[in-house]
Amino acid sequence: MTRRLRYQVASSLDGFIAMPNGGYDWIVMDPAIDFKALYNEFDTAAMGRKTYDVGRASGASVAMPGIDVIVFSRSLQAAAGKGFRIVNDDPAEVVRGLKAKSGKDIWLFGGGELFRTLLDAKLVDTVELAVMPVLLGSGIPVLPPGASTTLVLSDVKRLAASGIVVLAYSVSGSTRPAPRIRYVTPPRKKKKAPPNAKRRPKSRRR
């Protein structure tokens, strides 16, 4: 079965994936998102050089547990780091080869320019957005200008505590639809005591 290439990112309500300087501290967190379950859906991640630079500048590692991270760059020298590798090859050719191999899905981690390149090459299978209740006003768009693409809604989850809405779309024409959103888990409800339950008397100190 062909592996899916899934563009899975957080987005502001007005369609930006990062601030003009690449910052992402506006992203809202929600305990209902199970990041371990999300990571387990992939064994490979693809990212562009700008996304890599932002991660490095913030001091964060671009490595992901259990995931082979590939950084596409025309300016950086090809190299292998701890948990990631930088390649100068054509992204479309590399991803086409990866999709032909067996394995889990491939995470198109960012950014928008790499998304545009692979979308134009008809290699993207899904667009999955965690839409934040934030208006940035400007920034790096989900997708740079170019040809239009039709999407088909596969699943949606609303996280009431934070206001995040998680959307999963299949790219029209893809042979594999977007998966159900399984990494969002509703908070556990506290069990209510039965109405006739007797309360234990409080012990009195003497």
Give a verbal description of the structure.
The chain is of the alpha/beta class and 206 residues long. The chain has one domain (5-171): Dihydrofolate Reductase, subunit A (3-Layer(aba) Sandwich), CATH 3.40.430. Helix content is 16%, strand content 29%. The chain has four helices and eleven strands; from the N terminus they run E-E-H-E-H-E-E-E-H-E-H-E-E-E-E. The chain has helices at 35-39, 49-57, 91-100, 112-120; strands at residues 5-11, 16-18, 42-48, 68-72, 79-81, 84-87, 105-110, 126-131, 140-141, 151-159, 164-171. The strands form two sheets. Strands 5-6-4-3-7-1-8-11-10 form a nine-stranded mixed beta sheet. Strand 10 (151-159) and strand 11 (164-171) form a beta hairpin. The model has no long low-confidence stretch (mean pLDDT 90).
Span of the ends, CA to CA? 73 Å
How large a portion of the residues is in β-strands, by DSSP E?
Answer: 25-35%
Mean pLDDT: 90
**Poorly predicted residue ranges:** none
CATH topology: Dihydrofolate Reductase, subunit A
